[in-house]
Amino acid sequence: MRIEQLEYIEAVTRLGSLRRAADELHLSQPALSETVRNLERELGVAVLDRKRSGATISEAGRELLPHIIGVLDAVDRLRRAADEQHRTSRTVRLGTVFAATVPLLVPAIREFRALHSATEVEVIAAQQSVIHRSLLEGGVDLGLVNYLEGDDIAPDLDTTELIRGRPVVCLRPDSPLAALESVGVEDLLGEPLIVMRSGYLMHRFTHRLLKGRVPSFSYSADGAEMGKLMVAEGLGVTVLPDYSVVGDPLERTGAITCRPLAGDATTVLLVVQRSRSGSVSRAARDLHRIFVERADAHRTGEDRTDAHRTGGRRSPGASDRP
């Protein structure tokens, strides 16, 4: 039994004659009739009543028709599901707060592109809560978000730590604060401060750092990338994870730099997350693996740089690696 045999029966029933069914199916009438006869022989039932005036569905055929329609509907659902799976396997949706763009995000996407040349990576900038919700609802496949060490991790998400860093003050090289080895809270309060908008991790950290005190003037920025651009344009300073600043094109060209926060030992974690429930496409699994491998290489490179600078000893304040 073949699917097209059932489709032919459905067409004859719907159109009321072999001739009209043959025209719609772009078949000759004898070929259509013979295909139906083969099915009738296999079933042992005369599905059509053939008369001089034409062929119509038989009484036995009418009893079988609901089953035929059921099979065709199931096949149609299968085809639609396969089409959807093929479509989604050609797109990986990545939610990100745009942290570690240069050391991790861009290199990972570049490597993924070489492996999956026909798969689109859709990068979606959003706050952490939005990314979490999208992961659980299937709106994105992977999420790159920040945590402070000790934060509760979302239990419904599979979480893999990628990079550890420290909060730093991002500023212009010609800022008075750039002459300091480290920047204290009092120094920050005397400068225009660019604060991440509510919903970003560094918004929460900065308010905790200031302990309710208010800077001389403040702006609100939607994410690290906008914050760094505002710093480069001389609007003020901001507080970001070090891995969001070091190596950034603006930092490499001398438009921005960074200084550690005096007396602060906070650790910021960049993690990649995916839903624990539901299937994950092979492409999304590959991108997840690339993120993990890139993060390992980044950490190894940092350790080698620290050893080179300190004669084999860890530099003071270097964060411990797991």
Structure notes:
With 322 residues, the chain is an alpha/beta fold. The protein is built from twelve helices and twelve strands. The strands form three sheets. The chain has a five-stranded mixed sheet, sandwiched between helices. Strand 1 and strand 2 (54-57) form a beta hairpin. The radius of gyration is 31 Å and the shape is rod-shaped. The model is unreliable at 304-322 (pLDDT under 50).
Uncertain stretches: 304-322
Distance between the termini: 60 Å
Number of strands: 12
Helix count? 12
Mean pLDDT: 85
Rg estimate, integer Å:
31 Å
* Helix content, binned percent: 40-55%
As laid out across the biggest beta sheet, the strand order is 4-3-5-12-6
> Major sheet, described briefly?
5 strands, mixed
The H/E string reads HHHEEHEHEHEEEHEHEHEHHEEH
**Shape estimate:** rod-shaped
Portion in strands = 15-25%
Features of this protein?
48% helix; 322 residues; disordered C terminus; five-stranded mixed sheet; single chain; alpha/beta; rod-shaped; 12 strands
Task: Give the structure's gist in a few sentences.
The chain is α/β, with parallel strands linked by helices.
Task: Compile the SSE list and pairings.
Blueprint: H1 3-15, H2 18-25, H3 29-43, E1 48-51, E2 54-57, H4 59-89, E3 91-96, H5 101-115, E4 120-125, H6 128-137, E5 142-148, E6 157-165, E7 167-171, H7 185-189, E8 192-196, H8 201-210, E9 217-221, H9 224-232, E10 237-241, H10 242-245, H11 249-252, E11 257-260, E12 268-275, H12 282-310
Parallel strand pairs: 3-4, 3-5, 8-9, 8-10
Antiparallel strand pairs: 1-2, 5-12, 6-12, 7-10, 7-11
